Amino acid sequence: MNEIRKYRFFFILLFGLIILTFINQTLGWKAFQLTGNSILNMLFLLPPVLIFVSLLDKWVEKETLIRYMGEKSGIYGILFSLLLGVIAAGPLYVAFPIAVLLLKKGAGIRYIVFFLGVWTTAKLPVVVYEFSSFGFQFTLIHICFGLIFYYLMGIIFEKFYDRRQLIKYDINSDISI
User: Fold this and answer.
1) Which pLDDT belongs to residue 174?
2) Which of the residue ranges 28-37, 56-65, 82-91, 99-108 would you say has the lowest mean pLDDT?
3) 111 φ/ψ sector (left φ>0, alpha ψ -120 to 50, else beta)
4) To bridge 66 with a disulfide, which of 21, 106, 108, 137 should be the other Cys (CB 3.0-4.6 Å)?
5) Residue 125: count of CB within 10 angstroms of its CB
6) For residues 116 and 167, what is the distance between their CA atoms, to the nearest angstrom?
7) Is residue 175's pLDDT more than 50?
8) Minimal CA–CA distance to 146: which of 169, 166, 173, 126?
9) What is the pLDDT of residue 169?
């Protein structure tokens, strides 16, 4: 029974999708197809990312990561986070396992928030698309303001959250809805 309670949100959504299909069959089938395509995309993207994260965990020493992304790394932390985020590919949910690994290895919270922000606003495919669609001036303003905003948010997050407390968060604990 406890196992079913863990997945109650999934069952509620599935039940809603079935009801939608009975009410409007065309819309329901489109929703089923969209859900199936999203699940397939996740299944093809996540395994390589998890393999990459586990290799990164074994290959990169904790001391090295602390030197470049630790709480006192300064400009190196900013540059390393910027580099990791810019060369990124894929949707944001791919970045979260990497962010958790960085957190466990000793990276500062501000650099992790900055890395996630760079992933969303300044990764290479996004920059190329924005430049070709909106022009140089818009792209430059968007990226500059985005990077400043995410770095400041990282500083604010660092004030409110303790890295050790975030690491201790148990993902298997019961989530109440």
Assistant:
1) 47
2) 56-65
3) alpha
4) 106
5) 10
6) 17
7) no
8) 126
9) 64
- Band (134; pLDDT cuts 50, 70, 90): very high
Q: Which of 103, 114, 102 is nearest to 153 (CA)?
A: 114
Rounded to whole angstroms, what are the CA distances from 106 to 33, 57, 142? 41, 12, 30
Structure tokens at 121: 């606003």
> Residue for token digits 């997050």?
157
- Per-residue H/E/C for the chain: CHHHHHCHHHHHHHHHHHHHHHHCHHHHHHHHHHHHHHHHHHHHHHHHHHHHHHHHHHHCCHHHHHHHHCCCCCHHHHHHHHHHHHCCCCCHHHHHHHHHHHHHHCCCHHHHHHHHHHHHHCCHHHHHHHHHHHCHHHHHHHHHHHHHHHHHHHHHHHHHCCHHHHHHCCCCCCCCC
Mean per-residue pLDDT, 37-51: 84
What's the whole-model pTM score? Answer: 0.75
